[in-house]
Amino acid sequence: MYPLCPRLTELARVFLKLGTIGFGGPAAHIAMLEAEIVTRRQWISQAQFLDLIGLTNLIPGPSSTELAIYIGYLRAGWWGLIVAGVCFIVPAMAIVWGMAIVYERINDLPQAIAMFAGIKPVVVVLTIQAMWKLRISAIKNLPTGIAGVVTIALIGVFDVNTLIVLLVAGFGVMVWQNWRNWGGGLSVVWLPKLDLPILAIVPAIASQPSWVDVFTIFLKIGATIYGGGYVLLAFLQSELVERTQWLTSTQLLDAIAIGQVTPGPLFTTATFIGYLLAGHAGALAATIGIFLPSFIFVVIVTFWAPKLRQSVWFRSWLDGVNAGAWGAIAVVAYRLGVVTLVDWLSISIAAIGALLIWRWRVDPLWPILVGATIGLLGQLARSHH
């Protein structure tokens, strides 16, 4: 057995490295964690690792980050939980924070505008790809199919709040699949974080948000989001573009693009948005707000895991939430497509991006760089003429 301090130092070193080189999204992060933690260092077995993946998929938030946090807990207790999580998040946060500062200074330059205009069609393609890939795991049967369609209608046509729709989708599928067993096992479904008072932590809409407003918004998102980075896009569209109007669709697409080209969790997009909304305090508040629930949920799941695994009600609720999340991504993909694919250049970039992503299956970083290059070349050609 190692003493505690060397274990914490080792955890910090490992997760700082993984957070710095972790390009490619959650699937790539999980693969790197498996290679480093299971194969190379043999801290846990393959079976334990798979079990942790299943557990982190039961709770809201970024699953790869929560996996890192949980591994830290197993390796060095509560201090390990904190060290692993913070070290996995901080490299991406620092990079995104720096890019936000640069973005604020150059986003009025024609070249920068052209580059981001070239990136946006690729982000739309990535969103459509996420919707397409998730359809199999999200739409499993008739109840989840109906939940997905109803979600599209409620969000896309009636502009109902995304969080409310996801909760309703989960409840509807849960009741549909288990109504014959009503009264048997319902008590183990609800975790404290899912109680309805979470809906109350919505700040009054201010024309210029403070860091407290930013923290509150991202705390709510971090506490309730299932389905990964592209569901985050749906939540941000609903909360920050449509409800509060603190961001434009253009700024949101730019933020997601920055998240795609940087390592670490896509949820560090929150750092970028927090900086745009409330400066340095906003960047820190948004980052803490969106990731804090993940630490709390990992603590909770260490105690609740057996009940969660056994609860048919909870699994059904999660099926409904996932179907709703799929519908929310579909709505966002459509809305972003409408405002982005407006001329032959943007449509051409989207087509090239789709070919690279779907035909040759390249990492999203490369289509984004191609889009930025085409956008810049297009601007240079226009200025030359």
From TrEMBL:
<dbReference type="Pfam" id="PF02417">
    <property type="entry name" value="Chromate_transp"/>
</dbReference>
<keyword id="KW-0472">Membrane</keyword>
<feature type="transmembrane region" description="Helical">
    <location>
        <begin position="364"/>
        <end position="381"/>
    </location>
</feature>
<feature type="transmembrane region" description="Helical">
    <location>
        <begin position="112"/>
        <end position="132"/>
    </location>
</feature>
<feature type="transmembrane region" description="Helical">
    <location>
        <begin position="284"/>
        <end position="305"/>
    </location>
</feature>
<comment type="similarity">
    <text>Belongs to the chromate ion transporter (CHR) (TC 2.A.51) family.</text>
</comment>
<feature type="transmembrane region" description="Helical">
    <location>
        <begin position="217"/>
        <end position="236"/>
    </location>
</feature>
<protein>
    <submittedName>
        <fullName>Chromate transporter, chromate ion transporter family</fullName>
    </submittedName>
</protein>
<feature type="transmembrane region" description="Helical">
    <location>
        <begin position="78"/>
        <end position="100"/>
    </location>
</feature>
<feature type="transmembrane region" description="Helical">
    <location>
        <begin position="144"/>
        <end position="176"/>
    </location>
</feature>
<keyword id="KW-1003">Cell membrane</keyword>
<feature type="transmembrane region" description="Helical">
    <location>
        <begin position="182"/>
        <end position="205"/>
    </location>
</feature>
<dbReference type="InterPro" id="IPR014047">
    <property type="entry name" value="Chr_Tranpt_l_chain"/>
</dbReference>
<keyword id="KW-0812">Transmembrane</keyword>
<feature type="transmembrane region" description="Helical">
    <location>
        <begin position="341"/>
        <end position="358"/>
    </location>
</feature>
<dbReference type="InterPro" id="IPR003370">
    <property type="entry name" value="Chromate_transpt"/>
</dbReference>
<feature type="transmembrane region" description="Helical">
    <location>
        <begin position="256"/>
        <end position="277"/>
    </location>
</feature>
<keyword id="KW-1133">Transmembrane helix</keyword>
<feature type="transmembrane region" description="Helical">
    <location>
        <begin position="317"/>
        <end position="334"/>
    </location>
</feature>
<dbReference type="GO" id="GO:0005886">
    <property type="term" value="C:plasma membrane"/>
</dbReference>
<dbReference type="GO" id="GO:0015109">
    <property type="term" value="F:chromate transmembrane transporter activity"/>
</dbReference>
